[in-house]
Design a protein that fits this description.
The structure is a homodimer of 407-residue chains.
Chain A: E1 3-9, H1 17-30, E2 35-41, H2 44-49, E3 53-55, H3 56-59, H4 62-69, H5 91-101, E4 104-111, H6 113-128, E5 134-139, H7 155-173, E6 180-186, H8 193-196, E7 211-213, H9 221-234, E8 237-243, H10 274-286, E9 289-294, H11 308-326, E10 332-338, E11 346-352, H12 377-383, E12 395-396, E13 399-400
Parallel strand pairs in A: 1-2, 1-4, 4-5, 5-10, 6-8, 6-9, 7-8
Antiparallel strand pairs in A: 2-3, 10-11, 12-13
Chain lengths: 407, 407
């Protein structure tokens, strides 16, 4: 019996969350005998609860869909909204009535750990009320911190952006004769995957960035001083990469080392990144030029330096979600599984959303060098396939051309 | 009579300073009857004074030279070194003896205001000692602040990077329903050219970035509050671009507004960007999510988002410098001159280095809207041709492929 489907996006934007939406739409359209209208929630489950959704099958031309595949950000808008733990909450019957009134047969939620929590709760409530709706999660996060899956769509593009951009920072940092230190702060509050990708910027093993610090290793300023002293002797233009979430052995974040007196003129405490803090320490200790660079939001959603491999896998994850729903799966998240062997091959699979939600996969400690400031070659072998391929570049008037919902 | 030539790079790196070097080399090679060896100073005049130079004609294959054209940074290394004002300084005879011993007929110095000071002094000393060596400056600065020339090589690529990247930050900022403010801090301590380029990120006139502040307009926090209040009413996801060098009507930099108490744990004053300062002010005033992004070094030397127009013009400036020297010019800087008419045409010319050195061309006040927070369409017409064209993208293992001197 032909049913409609609906997709939503949730959590932080990435370079490929729209490629997964594209995959859902394409597979839905190709299954015209089983799938009717393809809806999109505006601003995820939060917006949907307020009645915001759109008819994607009607709104998007084939050209639009192709553009959507290569548009970073979250075309449908996103949210950070957790459904209540209590299944007796009135939210659930409200939601299921809405879905029933729209004749929805399957709901696809593209997001990270928190979004899988939504998938798990919806499918649990669905079982309680004997609903036939399928709930399938499509993984998405630059943090690469979802368990079970080999990696997550979004990570490959973030890794490529970080490696490419750090390589250019290294070029910029090396033009003068005078010794200098450049600190680059990268995303990753709890997991070091994004920061670890900076190792790919090296052209040879002893190249910059010479020192890389992840949240998974306890950080010590004294150890940093020793590492920098050693590295500066060999590389006068030193580049260091740090995760925003590095912390000391007591678990205190380095970004919290800012003096309590650090306030703006209104007396409000100012939040400072760890690289900014370390910049001051290193200036004081070594008396050389030190600067810090925070890559910030572009590392998570740049369409200018994204990975074609990542885009294609994200689209495939969206397609596989629809296929799985039509085969009756529910309460599951799509996984990416790497086949053994010398060449890179990925096949999609499924896992229980409950096995993923609210869990974190941190960077493996065995891939950090024993001195705590380097990344082992095993990671390079793992990550290199994920950053391959250049997506077609669409420009107009010299600027990137993307698909916008509101323009 | 056949003579050797030498080129140097000076000041901050850009995306196209190597394209100008490529132009010098290509033109030199094509004039084999007049030009012998093509040397490069390592780390500009400072390195040359210490005896550091290389034979570019021997070192670079045709493939290397093609790669050099598209490599950001400064292949030869750079310096920030001012020659003494006093022509009696022993530096001058030392330098001229070196040049004579290498049988140099022309010296090309690729750089900004300070580098043109070097060209002017060398040619002045050359006249004093009746040297036949030509000294020609090739303009380079992302700041676009050199007088006489319509624009400077390096600016087009920086403008393109800024416009493209801000467009993606706008995408990222607009995914949630909740109102938010994103501040983007761009380069430009004294001139607003780079920050003004953020207006190119707009897809329609009322689009983000809605508010743009340059150092050429006195900045007031009270006025910012009024502007933001008005803008937030229309655009809940507000993006604001500011130059690092915005200052108030008394001439005090906003980045100096940080409380004196703002120190690191060693008691050292911490330098903070103006966007970080304003982030605190806006959070306090509007109670919405506010974040700040400092684009930092990548805006000046990214080969990933550079302008083909800029690269070709930079190369042409290098070629024209060699042609001019061979015709007997000295003490001159190459200029880019825009021909009148509806289509963009640029022809190179020459101006006295003395007319350029130590002078600054700020952003025209008539191109700033009367409210002080916008850029007029005249600038868009001026800047759009400069960001056109996508250079070929050379990658290896998914990462940009550049030419390195030391690898």
């Amino acid at each position: 019996m032909k049913k409609n489907i609906i997709a939503g996006q949730s959590g932080g934007p990435t370079a490929v969350i729209n490629a997964s939406l594209y995959g859902v739409i394409e597979e839905g359209l190709s299954r015209a005998g089983e799938v009717g209208t393809i809806y999109g929630m505006i601003n995820g489950i939060e917006g949907f609860l307020s009645g915001h959704f759109m008819d994607l099958s009607a709104a998007l031309s084939p050209e639009d869909r192709e553009l959507l595949k290569h548009t970073p950000g979250a075309y449908l808008g996103s949210c950070r909204h957790k459904l209540p733990q209590n299944m007796d909450s009135p939210v659930y019957p409200l939601l299921f009535e809405k879905l029933a009134s729209m004749d929805i047969g399957a709901l696809f939620y593209i997001g990270g750990n928190d979004s899988m929590d939504t998938v798990e709760k919806l499918s649990r409530y669905g079982e309680l009320c004997h609903s036939s709706i399928s709930f399938i999660g499509v993984p998405k996060t630059i943090d690469n911190d979802l368990p079970v899956t080999d990696h997550t769509p979004g990570y490959g593009s973030a890794a490529k952006y970080v490696a490419s951009t750090v390589r250019e920072i290294v070029l910029d940092a090396s033009v003068y004769q005078q010794p200098s230190i450049t600190l680059v702060e990268l995303m990753g509050r709890h997991a070091g995957w994004v920061t670890a990708a900076s190792v790919l910027a090296r052209k040879f093993p002893e190249d910059n960035p010479r020192l890389i610090y992840l949240p998974e290793s306890p950080f010590s300023v004294e150890q940093l001083f020793a590492d920098v002293e050693r590295a500066l002797a060999q590389t006068p233009s030193l580049v260091i990469c740090v995760s925003e979430g590095i912390k000391d052995s007591s678990g205190r974040f380095i970004c919290e080392y800012a003096s309590e007196a650090q306030t703006d003129t209104f007396g409000h405490k100012m939040l400072t990144g760890c690289a900014k803090i370390l910049e001051g320490y290193l200036k004081n200790r070594f008396g050389v030029k030190v600067r810090s660079v925070e890559l910030n939001v572009n590392q998570r959603c740049s369409g200018l330096i994204s990975s074609l491999c990542d885009i294609e896998e994200a689209a495939e994850a969206g397609r596989f979600a629809v296929k799985s729903a039509l085969e009756g799966a529910s309460g599951q998240m799509v996984t990416l599984n790497r086949l053994p062997g010398p060449d890179y091959h990925m096949v999609p699979g499924l896992t229980d959303a409950a096995a993923v939600c609210n869990k974190e996969k941190t960077f493996p400690s065995e891939w950090i060098t024993p001195d705590g400031c380097g990344i082992r070659p095993e990671f390079i072998s793992y990550a290199l396939p994920l950053i391959q391929g250049e997506p077609p570049r669409r420009t107009k008037d010299g600027l990137p051309c993307y698909l916008y919902r509101n323009v």
